[in-house]
Amino acid sequence: MNILLPIDGSELALHEVRYALRLVAEGLQARFLLVNVQEPASLYEIVTAPDPVVLESVSHAAGEHALQAAEELLGAAGIAFERAVVTGDPAHAVIELIEEYACDMVIIGSHGMGLLRSALQGSVAQTLIHDSPVPVLLVKPPESSEGDGDAEA
Known about the structure:
- The chain has one domain: Rossmann fold (3-Layer(aba) Sandwich), CATH 3.40.50.620.
- 47% of the residues lie in helices and 19% in strands.
C-alpha cells in the first residue's frame, strides 16, 4: 500500500507519522510518500528577490527542512519512503500527488478545531475528505495538543 503523508514540520505531523508507524508495526505493508507543500511566493518576495530560481530554491529548502524529522522517524524504523516538495494550494497539490504517485491512502491529522473555526478557516483535511480519490485516514491530535493551533500540511 502506498500512503501519502502531508508533512508541515509541526509536532502534529510527526504524530501522524508515528501513527503510520504503529500501523506498520501491527502488520500493514506500506511505503510512504512524505509531502510538503509550500505556499506560492508573495508579491513582496517576488519584488525583493526577482530571480525565480532563488525563490524556488529557498522554497524547496524550506520544504526539505520541514520533512527532516519525519524522514528520520521513517528511516530509523527502516521504512521505505519517497518525498516530494511542491508549491501551490496544499489540498489541490496533495490530490495531484495522489494521482501522480498512485497512492492508495492519505493519513492526515485533524487540528481539533471547533465547527465554527473550521468553517471560517477552511481545512486541508476537510477538502481532502471531500475531494480525494482515495480514502483519507484522519488522525486526531494527542490530547495535549488539541488547542495548539499548529499549521496544516
